[in-house]
Automatic annotation (TrEMBL):
Name the record gives this protein: Cleavage and polyadenylation specificity factor subunit 5
Region (Disordered): 1-32
RNA-binding in keyword set: yes
Protein's organism: Rhynocoris fuscipes
GO biological process, one term: mRNA 3'-end processing
Key word Protein transport present: no
Cellular localisation: Nucleus
Length: 196
């Protein structure tokens, strides 16, 4: 089957006058995701992304996935303990897109009977984000016959920050927060034309 091509275009609000909103124009000398801007450039993504039909892929079954913690309070207690030892938690998630009936679909993992999430998870201390995401994708979605899966991790498409040991996350660090508790980065993962 032929690939559908989707174009992602993200046009920022012109906030050169210092107004609020996101995304905004960069200012000379501003650093965004490690890239230093020399002019007032727009933060724009405008390129095709290949989406293939869901029927191009086969899905096996694995042992059920469950959360590490029995409850939300237990999860935040574990996060507190880890924060004291290693600092801010770093996690990554992959956005995998396919199309079915002419519409784009995001593939999600099902945990238990009622919870769905993007594939990914916590990084090991000092681990590179892209390599960590490839490791996590292989652990959760990889083949079980020993054939290595080549994951194509592309653009960062989102950053989320957890300011406290509580559920809310934000696409920015609130100004009064000096030590966020978690940084979650979302990456676009380009699937091959066929699932081998």
């Amino acid at each position: 089957m032929a690939a559908a091509t989707a174009t992602i275009k993200q046009t920022p609000v012109n906030n050169s006058a210092g107004g609020h909103g996101w995304p905004r124009k960069t200012t000379p000398g501003q650093t965004v995701d490690g890239v230093k801007f020399t002019t007032n450039q727009l933060l724009t993504i405008n390129r095709p992304i290949n989406l293939y039909p869901l029927t191009n892929y086969t899905f096996g079954t694995k042992e059920p996935l469950f959360e590490k913690d029995p409850s939300v309070p237990a999860r935040f207690q574990r996060m507190r303990e880890e924060f004291e030892k290693i600092g801010m938690r770093r996690s990554v998630e992959g956005v995998l897109l396919v199309h079915e009936h002419g519409l784009p679909h995001v593939l999600l993992l099902q945990l238990g009977t009622t919870f769905f999430k993007l594939p990914g998870g916590e990084l090991i201390a000092g681990e590179d984000e892209v390599e960590g995401l490839k490791r996590l994708l292989t652990e959760t979605l990889g083949r079980q016959d020993g054939i290595k899966q080549d994951w194509i991790v592309e653009d960062t498409i989102g950053n989320w920050w957890r300011p406290n040991f509580e559920p809310p996350q934000y696409p920015y660090i609130p100004p009064h927060i000096t030590k966020p508790k978690e940084h979650k980065r979302l990456f676009l993962v380009q699937l091959g034309e066929k699932g081998k």
